[in-house]
């Protein structure tokens, strides 16, 4: 190990080096911690990464044990202690058949595996205190699980699991000596799962084949199941680690034997594998769920913002604090270009694989917080991804750490918003991957956490002058909103709001409704939601079309016709921003606006005293100022506080043209102008 890292030495030192290496080797071999000796190790070229992987994998045993290929062949007892003379014994008598590592219930074992090797594990009958066996008689709800071996776990099974887990909690302290014998002989369900944490790397630039995969063998009779074991000795067909994940479950009253084999490395691939395997009596220790569990809030040219679904169905502060004190969510992002995505292929469903790959391969940083924004005051995990490149496609992975064992998360199961829970177990959980593209220019910038408009979190019109100055940009917008709001409350204060309900302007609405609806509307109007000029969608409204892009060109210079001038170029609806401050102080290039939803305007008209004189534009003026929420669309067709986008999986969407209906030039801010009347 030590020597493979050292630099080449001048020749005259070679003799000295050889001698001293030998001595050092011997010395190292005598240290209990350094049982790995150069001659026997299949050295992984990436052993440099070991440190990181060690730090990124939750260990329940000594890390030396975890990464020591030799130990696998020699076996190890439960606490990872190996008597050091064993090595010398065997080096004298020659290599014996690899030994079998004993697995404990819910304790993952991490192993290194060189090409063309097999690692063996066993899960003995009687291992682990299965509370479940005592509590559920055979023939009860457990029956439904019994014969499954490959099909997907359905929600109903999860529900069964829920019930059981609750019973487990209740019976946690029940003495179980009496049932020990029965447990050891009764059939019980065992889940085996495994993740690829590292795999060989490609050495030929244009290699198009997928990385070679590990294979899982399970047997109840053959102690060392592997590629040479006949099929009738195995409980199931050999199972490849698909995208870094393999699992199996069975009912048995005996021992279970597990083999993990590595294939031959074909040319173009170099290195070895690292994988984690676990046996559990409670459910699959490692998990992949082919579902979405988050929304995209927005992206700009160098960052992106995401939120998970609601983490609880209540808005209690106790629930919120619980999540804030232990946020298990994390997100990994990789450029989706051919080179970067190739490293991810083969690890997409593996928590430990993604985690170590993300840490070692890129400059992208993800900061994770718990927020109650984006609807309902319910806690959600929020991810701010930074360090992205302009106009690039990225792949994202949402994962949940399993350290907080048996964490329950709600999962929306149908369109009515009904929820079921699912359980994240010790090995963590990975969700379906998704892709997104960063914006192509600097005219839009994501902002969040504003002081006054605290519900705003999306891209607003900006310019390269503010690219590194989020705070300055936020202050310009927020101060403007505050100023409008102050003038509004000054007016509202002159109205008899605080009198008894009979004297109030409306029985159904009061001034608090008015203030709330005004603020929602105001913030959506002062902070226009910004998209690239090149974005397609007939709900997007072009702004600032006569200003140059960053490269100096002006849009539509191929169309100098009088009709184009009169319907677009010369109209305020297209050649300005919604709020004058944006053009005066921020000076964005051309961009498109996702218009605020029309109901935001209608809400203030309904909620506020008529004497304030609020009115919404109508007809074509409305079309230039507000968007319409279209229920049938998956897409966000208008903006409102807390609006989020459904993840984009489709690539190459059919382009849509921008609506070009001529219309009266009107801006939503005109409502604010009406304050002059008061
Ligand atoms: C990444 O690796 C560094 C050290 O190499 C470690 O300190 C850090 O915790 C790791 N981060 C993650 C997310 O694993
Ligand atoms: C178990 O898996 C094997 C091979 O995939 C399949 O042939 C068999 O029908 C499965 N048995 C059950 C009960 O699903
Ligand atoms: C294997 O894992 C997948 C994804 O978590 C799950 O749908 C499937 O039911 C599991 N299969 C077994 C045999 O546990
Ligand atoms: C991909 O990798 C090859 C070889 O390492 C390199 O020549 C090429 O520029 C890379 N492409 C990208 C987009 O990074
Ligand atoms: C929770 O929601 C209820 C009703 O929606 C609301 O009255 C209450 O103020 C909320 N509590 C918190 C802490 O947000
Ligand atoms: C990461 O950032 C450093 C310094 O900014 C840069 O030199 C390096 O090329 C970046 N690496 C990648 C993979 O983008
Ligand atoms: C969270 O729950 C609230 C109330 O049920 C709902 O209005 C909101 O849309 C949910 N938000 C997300 C992001 O799921
Ligand atoms: C608010 O009112 C003051 C005084 O009338 C005025 O100077 C200021 O411009 C107003 N603010 C806005 C945003 O219109
Ligand atoms: C300038 O940039 C815009 C937007 O990024 C792009 O649409 C246009 O094709 C570019 N023009 C030239 C001449 O590169
Ligand atoms: C349309 O506007 C452009 C830019 O302002 C100008 O160059 C062009 O001459 C105008 N076309 C007509 C027909 O007026
Ligand atoms: C120019 O714009 C007008 C009005 O939108 C449109 O009818 C015409 O087809 C456009 N001409 C070209 C060459 O794009
Ligand atoms: C909705 O958005 C998706 C992804 O952004 C796009 O593929 C799709 O075409 C859009 N739908 C419509 C009706 O434009």
UniProtKB/TrEMBL annotation:
Q: Which GO terms describe its molecular function?
A: calcium channel activity
A biological process from GO: calcium ion import across plasma membrane
Q: Which portions of the sequence form the region Disordered?
A: 129-162
Q: What is this protein called?
A: Calcium channel subunit Mid1
- Which species is the source of this protein? Periconia macrospinosa
């Amino acid at each position: 190990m030590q020597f493979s890292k050292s630099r080449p030495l001048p020749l005259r030192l070679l003799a000295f080096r050889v001698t001293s290496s030998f001595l050092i080797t011997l010395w190292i071999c005598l240290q209990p911690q350094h049982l790995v000796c150069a001659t026997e190790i299949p050295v992984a070229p990436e052993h440099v990464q070991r440190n990181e992987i060690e730090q990124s994998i939750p260990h329940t045993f000594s890390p030396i044990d975890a990464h020591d290929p030799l130990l696998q062949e020699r076996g190890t007892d439960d606490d990872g202690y190996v008597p050091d003379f064993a090595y010398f014994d065997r080096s004298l008598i020659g290599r014996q058949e690899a030994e079998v590592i004993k697995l404990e219930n819910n304790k993952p074992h991490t192993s290194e595996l060189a090409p063309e090797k097999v690692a063996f594990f066993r899960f003995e009958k009687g291992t682990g205190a299965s509370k479940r066996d005592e509590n559920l008689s055979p023939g009860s709800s457990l029956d439904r699980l019994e014969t499954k071996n490959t099909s997907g776990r359905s929600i109903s099974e999860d529900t069964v699991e829920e019930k059981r887990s609750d019973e487990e909690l209740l019976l946690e302290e029940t003495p179980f000596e009496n049932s020990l014998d029965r447990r050891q002989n009764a059939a019980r369900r065992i889940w085996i799962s495994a993740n690829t944490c590292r795999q060989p790397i490609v050495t030929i630039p244009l290699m198009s084949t997928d990385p070679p995969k590990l294979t899982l063998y399970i047997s109840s009779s053959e102690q060392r199941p592997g590629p040479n074991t006949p099929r009738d000795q195995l409980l199931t067909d050999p199972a490849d680690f698909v995208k870094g994940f393999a699992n199996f479950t069975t009912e048995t009253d005996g021992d279970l034997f597990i083999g993990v084999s590595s294939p031959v490395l074909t040319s173009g691939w170099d290195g070895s594998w690292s994988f984690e395997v676990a046996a559990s009596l409670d459910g699959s220790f490692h998990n992949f769920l082919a579902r979405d569990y988050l929304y995209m809030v927005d992206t700009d040219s160098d960052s992106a913002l995401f939120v998970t679904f609601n983490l609880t169905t209540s808005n209690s502060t106790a629930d919120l604090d619980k999540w804030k004190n232990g946020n298990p969510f994390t997100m990994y992002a990789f450029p989706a270009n051919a080179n970067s995505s190739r490293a991810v292929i083969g690890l997409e469903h593996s928590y430990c694989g993604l985690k170590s790959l993300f840490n070692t391969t890129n400059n992208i940083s993800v900061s994770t917080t718990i927020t109650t924004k984006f609807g309902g005051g319910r806690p959600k995990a929020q991810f701010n991804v930074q360090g992205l490149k302009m106009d690039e496609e990225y792949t994202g992975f949402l994962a949940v750490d399993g350290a907080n064992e048996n964490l329950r998360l709600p999962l929306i199961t149908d369109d009515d918003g009904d929820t079921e829970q699912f359980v994240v177990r010790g090995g963590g959980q990975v969700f379906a991957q998704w892709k997104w593209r960063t914006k192509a220019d600097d005219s839009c910038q994501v902002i969040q956490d504003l002081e006054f408009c605290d519900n705003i979190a999306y891209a607003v019109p900006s310019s390269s002058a503010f690219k590194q100055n989020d705070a300055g940009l936020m202050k310009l917008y927020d101060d403007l909103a505050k100023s409008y709001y102050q003038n509004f409350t000054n007016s509202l204060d002159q109205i008899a709001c605080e009198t008894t309900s009979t004297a109030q302007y409306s029985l159904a609405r009061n001034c608090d409704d008015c203030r709330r609806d005004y603020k929602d509307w105001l913030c959506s109007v002062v902070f226009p939601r910004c998209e690239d000029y090149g974005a397609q969608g007939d709900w997007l409204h072009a702004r600032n079309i006569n200003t140059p892009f960053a490269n100096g060109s002006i849009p539509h210079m191929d169309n100098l016709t009088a009709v184009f001038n009169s319907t677009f170029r010369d109209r305020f609806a297209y050649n300005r921003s919604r709020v004058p401050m944006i053009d005066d102080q921020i000076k964005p290039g051309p961009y498109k606006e996702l218009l605020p939803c029309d109901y935001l305007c209608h809400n203030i008209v309904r909620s506020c005293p008529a004497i304030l004189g609020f009115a919404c534009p109508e007809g074509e003026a409305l079309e230039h100022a507000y968007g319409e929420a279209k229920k049938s669309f998956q897409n966000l067709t208008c903006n409102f506080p807390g609006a989020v986008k459904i993840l984009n999986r489709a690539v190459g969407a059919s382009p849509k043209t921008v609506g070009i209906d001529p219309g009266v030039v009107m801006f939503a801010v005109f409502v604010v102008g009406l304050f002059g009347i008061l």
